[in-house]
Amino acid sequence: MTLLGALDNFYLTKGEQEQSPSRRDGITAAAERELRHYCADVVAEAAVLLRLPQVVAATAQVLVQRFYCKRSLKKFDPKVVAMAAFWLAAKLEEVIEIDNPNRLTLRDVIRVVDRVTRRREGKSLTVMDPYSQRYDVLKQEAVQTERHMLRAFGFVVHVEHPHRFILNYCQMVLFDTAKHAVSKEHQRAVQQEAWNMANDSLRTSLCVTYRAEAVACGIIFTAARKLKIPLPENPPWWHLFEVEDEQVYDVCATLCELYSRPRPQPGAGAPPPAAAASSQGAPAGGTPQLARLSAEQLHPACCATEATIATAVVAEDALRSLWQLLQHDVAAVRGHLPVASHIGRPMPHLQPGLS
Q1: Could you report the per-residue pLDDT of 254-274, keeping only the tens digit for each?
Q2: Cys bridge to 264: 10, 207, 286, 345, which one at CB 3.0-4.6 A?
Q3: Domain span at 191
Q4: Are residues 111 and 246 in the same domain?
């Protein structure tokens, strides 16, 4: 285990997540999930508008999930947390060039995040005056929230994304043999599908539940099942990376639940304030629309492999078809149906009591 791995203090069990500070303050599980999802969407859209590497958005989304595992949504506004997490992620990913006169500033982050949230709330898209009292209040709140985040994390803020493992793992398990003949087209399809799912997984709590290696294995498993491409299962291929069966199946179930969320209704607006979320319930959700990360932006070691992956965006009908293809396996994971696969081969037996 590396030194940074020994310092990890942000992985929580499902039971610990159910006792989150927001839950203790009376916010329902559905409302907490929707507010976290809303905050992650705002961060992703702000990164696109600011034309920053998408790794900044990915890191900020992880920081948001970690922070709300330690602090309550009732005490920290998701809009301000999105600003603070985005600004902290920009520092961690070193995208702020000190010598560049046009470098990213906190003013840019505040104005863009404010515009994104106002558009989602259906308000007028006026440009915020940086000399107004409203801007001063938001700036002070963002700076204070960033300090709260660092204190909550114990200044352990390193982030490891599953993307860096996906390409390497795919190359290792998608090999050509007489028994498992996987064409180059299928290899690229699995890699691209897994890459897209890794982006969407940042909207869930997987980043605070399992390590990046386990999340990567679960994502590859889900992508291969969707595309009906067989992978070695006797023994399961993820055992090579010291990942347990329960972790892989839980990642798959979490992704299916994410993709099964209903589409947002036109004019639905933003989620209710966290202070009222416990009584109003969760707002209508939507299908993830996160801009796709590139391998070069996330990890330099992936640059050579990125050229072999076709750039594509998962359409909403494909996301719905994923749920239709995998709902039988998800039910099996939850213990309601006999375990069976979509590719005609039995899945490994699940241990009882898997949540």
Answers
A1: 999 999 887 655 445 555 544
A2: 286
A3: 163-260+315-333
A4: no
- Contact present, 339 and 350 (Cβ < 8 Å): yes
Please report, to the nearest 10 degrees, the dihedral formed by the alpha carbons of residues 53, 55, 56, 60 taken in order: 160
Q: Quote the CA–CA distance of 53 and 94 in Å, as a whole number.
A: 11
**Angle between helices 212-227 and 245-259 in degrees, nearest 10:** 60
**Phi and psi angles of residue 294, each rounded to the nearest 5 degrees, phi first:** -105, 150
Domain-located, residue 6: no
Quick one: residue 336, left, alpha or beta (phi over 0 = left, psi -120 to 50 = alpha)? Answer: alpha
The residue type at 63: L
Residue with tokens 């309550």: 72
In a domain, 105, yes or no: yes
Number of C-beta neighbours around residue 14 at 10 A: 10
Burial of 242 (0-12, 13-18, 19+ CB in 10 A): exposed
Rounded Cα–Cα distance for residues 115 and 113 (Å): 5
Task: Give yes or no for a contact between 67 and 81, defined as CB atoms under 8 angstroms apart.
Answer: yes
- Considering the domain architecture, whether residues 147 and 25 belong to the same structural domain is answered as yes
Report pLDDT digits (tens) over 161-185.
999 899 889 888 876 444 555 677 8
**CATH number for position 78:** 1.10.472.10
Task: Identify whether residues 65 and 150 lie together within a single domain.
Answer: yes
Rounded Cα–Cα distance for residues 230 and 236 (Å): 11
Same domain, 167 and 155: no
Please indicate, yes or no, if residue 251 is contained in any of the structural domains. Answer: yes
Same domain, 42 and 174: no
Distance CA 240, CA 204 (A): 26
Query: How many folded domains does the chain comprise?
Result: 2
* Torsions phi, psi for 342 (to 5 deg): -85, -10
**pLDDT tens digits, one per residue of 128-138:** 899 999 999 99
Does 147 share its domain with 172? Answer: no
Q: What are the backbone angles phi and psi of residue 233, rounded to the nearest 5°?
A: -130, 5
Let me know whether 151 and 178 are in one domain. no
